[in-house]
Amino acid sequence: MAKKGFLTEALKKHFGFDSFKGNQEAVIQNILDGKDTFVLMPTGGGKSLCYQLPSLLMEGTAIVVSPLIALMKNQVDAMRNFSEDNGIAHFINSTLNKAAIDLVKGDIKRGKTKLLYVAPESLTKEENIEFLRQVPVSFYAIDEAHCISEWGHDFRPEYRRIRPIINEIARRPLIALTATATPKVQHDIQKNLGMMDAAVFKSSFNRSNLYYEVRQKNQNIDKEIVKYIKGNEGKSGIVYCLSRKKVEDFTEILKANGINALAYHAGMDSQTRGGNQDKFLMEEAEVIVATIAFGMGIDKPDVRYVIHYDIPKSLEGYYQETGRAGRDGGEGKCIVFYINKDLQKLEKFMQGKPISEQEIGKQLLEETKAYAESSVCRRKILLHYFGEEYTEENCGNCDNCLNPKKQVEAKELLISVLETVQTLKDKFKADHIINILQGKKTSGIISYEHDDLDVFGTGKDEDERTWNTVIRQAMIAGYLDKEIENYGLLKLTPAGKAYLKNPVSFKITKDNDFDEEDGVEETPVRGGASCAVDPVLYSIMKDLRKKISKRLEVPPYVIFQDPSLEAMATTYPVTIEELQNIPGVGAGKAKRYGEEFIQLIKRHVTENEIERPEDLRVRTVANKSKLKVFIVQSIDRKVALDDIALTKGLEFNELLDEIEAIVYSGTKINIDYFLTEIMDEDHIEDIYLYFKESETDDLEAAIAELGSSYTEEEIRLVRIKFLSEMAN
Question: 197 or 706: whose pLDDT is higher?
Fold first, then answer.
């Protein structure tokens, strides 16, 4: 037993902290006493210190089994920062070549290494087992231990082989650590690791600084997230998506809207992926868009928001991912976008897996659905899921508590549910109970002859949503329990049995409705002055355009075309970024001519007390952007325009449409190499002069004025040259 105060002194000496957090000291003491230890501690609670400090105080090398290579590197770097000797901490995984592994083994043999991080895959290799048998092991730490359990959200078969392997190396004390484990997962981990007698240290899962919110997912989700991120400029955030493709597409959308975002998913090469993680840590990027592969153990304390573009597959996963927000105790906003059909998609993905696995997956999705749709305190639901009771009525830091719904009396409905569960002797799931109450003659009901029960059809006046609400809130109240490991069977608790003998008032709040996909795609601003919402502003901007055109000696349309002015008079852009969201305005034009227009719009908005439409049209990354890039690059390489059209399967006039769109949005290109090949120099000069002196860029007016000596294609080509040189 270590002397009182000894551990605090060691903490100060090695890590510079004056005091321990939560259970840390008791956990460390238990390891020093040579006992198996199980640690349940939420993200940001300081799990790593629980094995780092004792490794420095004990004889030999501590072996840490860790699932993520990126996490190992971060942890080793952090340990080396606390020590004068780099040999103090090492890792062995697939990224190291033989020479590097030999160096690591040399440091371990010399007794310099106190902490060795090993990937579970590396631990199973025969040569590593053979080497570790010669090493004096102080203890084993199994980090992210929920990976052991098939009930966890990140099941890894290699983790289930850890116990036999460490028995082969050397029997030493074991510490298992996780930030997410339901009672079922905890039992599964302890059983698999052969540590049923371990001392269990469980910290509260409540992260009071995190704000939880569920939003309706609709067609405008991209716009909503862009708007949210822009409203939190300068803050670090993570956006989680389910698929790699969505990660890449949405990263491009954020970049197109001037947001410094990077992608992260398992399909990227490790160098790019690691580089993007480092840039995020070093604040060279504001936002990471990622699949769940990102962030296990990432030590960035000031992530201010975590947005889920798609609903996660389980509440374990959701808790783990939201746990990356506000690890310094500061603000952490956790927003998830939900629509029921996303869950149906996830359920389809499970087809083809073994039936037992599908059943587990369905139960986990059911819990996620309950969390999303419920109008009860989100904190209460999350903590209940992890086996912790939250007694406050209102947490004051989730959407449901900040906008509470009216409660309705449901005493008789609860009695009906409890009596039905009791009649069925705790052997059926919620959907079966609801079918009985609603009087539905499903194949299951008929085969069990449950349509003969007295309770059959007694609740047909209530809809399925209401019955689900009663069951979910009865579970939180402790009257019902759900056996997830037994395919979600509902059973009556002692409190439920007592309630039936002596019923009291039971109030529920109806679930939120997320069934309908509301919101329609915004229509882009079309041409014609009649479209301008603010004719006064439109007129003032036309005057400004004329003034600038005279000053720069270019026709007004070269600066901004009429449809662009109409759009400005509709959405009132007041920054260069917002101006770039206007159709026909690229980055070049916005920077070149934008400032005076922005100042004018700002003044107009202030003087007339105009409320701007907040949701400016979000710039989308159309597939055409790839074509645009190809065209610009080909012109830079002086590829003949007819060859470009041929390569892309375009008619020549279609290619000219594309090139015109490019120059009208402010990109400068040079097609002289092509013009001088196909046109007479005098012809080029005549057409160029016409556009220089004309008040309009209208093609028909140009054809009428220039006469039949010039073809339409020639006029369009010279107009492209003129616009590019004069406007851009």
Answer: 197
The fold adopted by the segment(s) 6-202 is: Rossmann fold (3.40.50)
Report domain extents, the chain: 6-202, 210-352+369-388, 411-505, 529-607, 624-727
What pLDDT band is residue 523 in, cutting at 50, 70 and 90?
A: very low
DSSP per residue, 585-651: --HHHHHHHHHHHHHHHHHHHHHTT----SSPPPP---THHHHHHHHHHHHHTT--HHHHHHHTT--
Could you count the other beta carbons within 10 Å of the beta carbon of residue 77?
12
- pLDDT per position as a tens digit, 114-164: 999 998 888 888 888 999 999 999 999 998 888 787 655 555 677 778 899
List of residues 6+ apart from 706 with CB closer than 8 A: 686, 687, 690, 715
Q: At what angle do helices 712-727 and 652-664 cross, to 10 degrees?
A: 20
pLDDT band at 293 (very low <50, low <70, confident <90, very high): low
Element of type H or E holding 413: helix 411-423
Beta bridge partners of 681: none
> pLDDT-derived band of residue 533, with 50, 70 and 90 as boundaries?
low
What residues contact residue 215 under an 8 Å CB cut-off, 6+ apart? 224, 335, 336, 337, 338
Structure tokens at 33: 């006493």
- pLDDT per residue over 202-224, tens digit each? 888 899 999 999 999 988 899 89
The reply to whether domains 210-352+369-388 and 529-607 share a CATH topology is: no
**Which residues have C-beta within 8 Å of that of residue 374, sequence separation ≥ 6?**
381, 400, 469, 472, 473, 511, 512
Average pLDDT value for the chain: 84
Q: Picking from 329-333, 427-431, 522-526, 606-610, which range would have the lowest pLDDT averaged per residue?
A: 522-526
With CA atoms as reference, report the closest residue to 574 among 250, 238, 230, 196. 230
Residue-by-residue DSSP string for 204-221: ----TTEEEEEEE--TTH
pLDDT band at 532 (very low <50, low <70, confident <90, very high): low
The answer to whether 227 and 581 have CB atoms below 8 angstroms apart is: no
Give a three-class secondary structure readout of 249-312.
HHHHHHHHCCCCEEEECCCCCHHHHHHHHHHHHCCCCCEEEECCCCCCCCCCCCEEEEEECCCC
Determine phi and psi for 303, rounding to 5 degrees: -75, 120
User: What count of Cα atoms within 13 Å lies in the side-chain half-sphere of residue 20?
Assistant: 20
What are the DSSP E strand ranges found in 96-232? 115-118, 137-142, 174-178, 199-202, 210-216
Q: Is the pLDDT of residue 197 over 60?
A: yes
CA distance 688 to 676: 14
Give which of 440, 413, 556, 426 is closest to 491, Cα–Cα: 426
- How many residues belong to the chain? 728
- Residue 525 per-residue DSSP state: P
CATH-assigned architecture of domain 411-505: Orthogonal Bundle (1.10)
Fold of 624-727: Arc Repressor Mutant, subunit A (1.10.10)
pTM: 0.63
CATH architecture of 529-607: Orthogonal Bundle (1.10)
Residue 345 and residue 343: Cα distance in Å, rounded? 5
What confidence tens digit (pLDDT) does each residue in 17-72 have? Answer: 788 888 899 999 999 999 999 999 877 678 889 999 999 999 999 999 987 776 77
Amino acid type, 155: F
Q: How confident is the model at residue 528 (pLDDT cuts 50, 70, 90)?
A: very low
CB atoms within 10 A of CB 33: 12
Cβ proximity of 515 and 531 under 8 Å: no
Query: Amino acid identity, residue 341?
Result: K
Q: What is the CATH number of domain 210-352+369-388?
A: 3.40.50.300
**DSSP one-letter string for 67-97:** S-HHHHHHHHHHHHHTSS-GGGEEEESTT--
